[in-house]
Amino acid sequence: MIEAKNLTKRFGRIVALDGVTVEIPEGFNLILGPNGGGKSTFFKLATGVYRPTSGRIALFGKNPWTDAGVKRKIGVSYDPVSFPPLISGWEWLEFIARSKGFDESEVERVGKLFQLDFLDERTSNYSSGMLKKLAVAQAFVGAPKLIMIDEPLANIDFETMGRFVKLFRKMKGETSFLVISHIWEPLKPVVDRLYVISNGRLILQGEARELWDEVERLFRFPVSE
């Protein structure tokens, strides 16, 4: 689905991503790493928000920076969440749906799927949890081949977290996922492959079932007495 070769992104003197080479296949893929390590930069390069400084990245064999058509095959949710303040959640999802060739029936489907009972309200009145629910829901509009979500479990309660994980598990047979999350324990039952990006480099990748112990060691910090 996603292939990167010697992928590098600089912002002035800052090297956000440094020569990453990776192939991400179908399934549920999870990217981990510290804040500022390069996860979100890779994510935005893959979705075509950023242009590589050097190297290349392909999404379904196409360049996401120049090929608008390939973007219609994916559903995306970014973090931090941001919406136009004077529109309702319904209007936002309808905008996403129509941009992909769907009508309001698709909004109804996604609204029921995520139990969004607040879509008639303006997004400026939403709590942080409501905003996150809407952001994740938008990624499911249009039955995309690949759903890409940055921090799906942030700013939501435990009940919603459980519903999201259950939905991800249900959808695994119908679509693929690329997810960034600092909260990864609840996702363990659904993850197929893991990737760890730190200091702009890919330092670990492979089958999740073989790497959880290594991940635990990486994220276990010594406590001073």
TrEMBL record:
Source species taxonomy: Archaea, Methanobacteriati, Methanobacteriota, Thermococci, Thermococcales
Domain of life: Archaea
One annotated GO molecular function: ATP hydrolysis activity
Pfam families: ABC_tran
InterPro entries recorded: ABC_transporter-like_ATP-bd (IPR003439), ABC_transporter-like_CS (IPR017871), ABC_Transporter_VariousFunc (IPR051782), P-loop_NTPase (IPR027417)
Domain spans labelled ABC transporter: 2-224
Organism of derivation: Thermococcus nautili
Gene3D superfamilies, alphabetized: P-loop containing nucleotide triphosphate hydrolases
Keywords per UniProt: ATP-binding, Nucleotide-binding, Transport
Protein name: ABC transporter ATP-binding protein
